[in-house]
Amino acid sequence: MRYRLAQDARPQALTLLIAATISVVLWFIPYAEFLTYPFQIFVTFIHEGGHALAALLTGNSVANLSVATDTSGVTQTTRGGLLSQIFINSAGYLGSMAFGALLLVLIRKAVAARIVLLACGIFIFALTMIYGLFKPLVWMTGWSGIPFTLFAGTLISVGLVLIAKFASGRVATFFVSFLAVQCVLNALFDLKTVFLLATPFAPPVANDAMNMANATGIPAIFWTVLWISFALGILWFAMRLYVAGRDKSYQPDLPFEETAPPV
Fold first, then answer.
1. Greatest CA separation for the chain
2. For position 4, what pLDDT does the model report?
3. Is the pLDDT of residue 247 over 60?
4. Comparing 33-37, 70-74, 166-170, 208-212, which segment has the lowest mean pLDDT?
5. Nearest one of 61, 45, 54 to 88, comparing CA atoms
6. How far apart are CA 119 and CA 160, in angstroms?
7. Distance CA 46, CA 121 (A)
8. Disulfide: which of 75, 133, 141, 255 matches 51 by Cβ 3.0-4.6 Å?
9. Coil, strand or helix: which one is 245?
10. Considering the entire predicted model, what is its pTM?
11. Average pLDDT of the chain?
12. pLDDT at residue 109, as a whole number
């Protein structure tokens, strides 16, 4: 069956296109990294938060979560069984992609951008306070990561809440779109880097794919390719929900009345 861009999705799609274009253009501007740096730290929190949530869902415990100034991050959890380790290690990159896809779907379903930004701020603040500060103090581990994690997590949380409270609806929607684009692009480019590191010619570097290889005995490149496939599948599904509508005069699953296609 033929699909087209739904009439009611066009303003949202334009906002997403602008956010994606700005993200790409910034890559080619010298010293523009500082503009996207807070967003990269945000994505790192989402990545590490994915590991933490996966650990909790599999009955494991989270000892600490930290982000570093170079945008890398570490989450230490109890190991659990093999299936737990597979789920936890996979939840970083796929969690970032799924989070970005979720933001796209929420925009498409007309959920208020202010609510989305407020929820993101609360989520980052909870990760910071519980796993970036409280748990490291209790478990007496990962203390070196506390200062920057606490500073960055608090600053990002406050920034998201302030935008949700004071920005106009259009600006808030743009920020949600930009966060979604950053999550998606960073997940894809990080997976590309992990793929290159998983080749036999690359030096051994600790990463999620190497952790999977150590846990399962299956080469890291296999897990990287599998994650890339899942990530692209998540993105494809989200984009279908975001911009596509069937050629019908009415779609009950859309939040707005669909305009009838021209005859």
1. 69
2. 59
3. no
4. 33-37
5. 54
6. 9
7. 11
8. 75
9. strand
10. 0.86
11. 85
12. 77
Higher per-residue pLDDT: 204 or 220: 220
Query: What is the three-class DSSP state of 155?
Result: helix
The owner of tokens 């506390």 is 146
CA-to-CA separations, 44 to 99, 124, 183, in angstroms, rounded: 12, 10, 9
Handedness of CA 140, 143, 145, 146 (dihedral sign): positive
Q: How far apart are the first and last CA of the chain?
A: 17
The residue whose two tokens read 């991050």 is: 73
Angle between helices 33-57 and 146-166 (to 10 degrees): 100
- pLDDT at residue 10, rounded to an integer: 62
Reading the block at residue 150, the tokens are 């606490």
Could you list the beta-strand ranges (E) of 160-250: 244-246
Question: What is the average per-residue pLDDT within 161-176?
Answer: 92
Shortest CA distance to 184 belongs to which of 245, 86, 105?
A: 105
3-state secondary structure of 179: helix
